[in-house]
Amino acid sequence: MNNKIVLIAAVLLFALSGNAQVYNYADGEGPVPPDSIKGLYVALNLGFYFANNNTAVIYGGYGYQRDGTINDFANAWLNRSIQGNPEFRRQTSDALGLADGEWAFTEDDMPGVMQFSGSFMYGGHLRYMFNADFGVYAEINGTNPVTVGEFTIQTFSPSPDPTQNQRLRRFGIRGEEQRLIVNLGLHRVLFREQFEKQGRSTTILPYVDVGINFTFTKFEENFYSLDDGVVRDLTLFFNQQNQFVDQANLLTGAGFGGFAAVGGQITLGSKFILNIGYNASFEQIKLGDVNERGLQSQVVLKAIYMF
Known about the structure:
mainly beta; Porin; eight-stranded antiparallel barrel; two-stranded antiparallel ribbon; 4 helices; 14 strands; elongated
């Protein structure tokens, strides 16, 4: 059994090192000319996207006016949904299991910092290689960043324990937005010639990318729930008689900036390559009243095939 394991390991080692060859560059020897590998490549992108938190504030319960200006507390979507009319106050009381006078919601109870979590990203990639190590590309990726925060409601239910007469109950609020990211970049593979001169395999090589990017953003949804588990949509508005009167306009925006990426290229054959890398972009995205610069990042796997 041990001999079989040793034999299999030796075969694998030989296979991985079989591409390595020492060339006598002084005598004009060398590998296949890089120009022979030029051509058009297509790829599937899969990865994770990490948005900065600049636009996350929009989902913190205040909402916005038609022009994108963030509301004050009196007009805040969350405040209006919790106690904006008698019916909403009754629903909130029922969800808390309390009488109407046994709870309060003030500006101090509004959500604090809203932060995006990492989101799954997918997309397509089109690349033209002028030789084995240099090319240009365009790619489009889509993702739905999600932000989750917390707000409180003060309760005053009577209790024999004085420490329980007034306490805070905590609830979650959630926001989601769509992002479409377009990258236009230059791709450069490094150290191929050095590896070949040293007789090392070029199956795995580092690479760098630089370029410009455009991000298109859309407000997707904003909602919360209380103890009754009912999901309440903050983008729907009702009057004092609890009649539906309006729905929020879903903001759209765009931004642009530059990016740089580093990673590793794994060659699996004459036509199939994997790129695994980290991409960081610095860009300014405008969405409603928010118009700030920030750093976004991606961890991405690109499965690339040459036509």
